[in-house]
Amino acid sequence: MRIIRGMSTPRPEPPAPATKLASDPPDSGLYDEDFVAWIECQAALLRSGKLTALDRANLAEELEDMGKAKRQELRSQLEVLLTHLLKYQFQPGMRTGSWLGTIGEQRHRIEDVVEESPSLRPLLAELLEDAKLYKRAVQKASLETGLPAGTFPPISPYGREALDERYWPGPGPHPDLD
Fold first, then answer.
1. pTM for this structure?
2. DSSP secondary structure string for all residues of the chain
3. Inter-CA distances, 173 with 32, 129, 147, 152, Å
4. pLDDT tens digit string along 25-81?
């Protein structure tokens, strides 16, 4: 008990915080309160080897989400690439440096993602044949060009060559970027 100045009756001490046992689940409150602080805490725990203190459930979920984000990034970049290849091929009179730049940029980004995560290479091959992804690219190309969606092939005319920086679909002239 401690005596507070000006009070004649001693006040009870607040209870001491419970000692955390190694078998107790980690406190994941920080995960909900401050995500960046939680990440930094998890990284520090990993580096110090305090594996039992890790917020394993949330950490596993975040790691899985990172993989999903990389796959979604690849899907998105490929959709943009296909959209611009369609625009390039079916509106040759409207070709601009911007279209060429976007096609080149997406090819490089896709290459970088697969280089960084080679396990995504089989997914890339799968996405190049994904009818849903191609349909989205057609819809976007149709909206951006004003051409009816039926103008474009019903299945993707592009395979792996879509990723080749020397490949330009449709009538020429084409840029010589070598």
1. 0.77
2. -BPPTT-SSPBPPPPPPPPPPTTSPPP-HHHHH-HHHHHHHHHHHHHHT-GGGS-HHHHHHHHHHHHHHHHHHHHHHHHHHHHHHHHHHH-GGG--HHHHHHHHHHHHHHHHHHHH-GGGHHHHHHHHT-HHHHHHHHHHHHHHH---GGGS-SS---SGGGG-TT---SSS------
3. 56, 27, 22, 20
4. 455 688 999 999 999 999 999 999 999 999 999 999 999 999 999 999 999 999 999
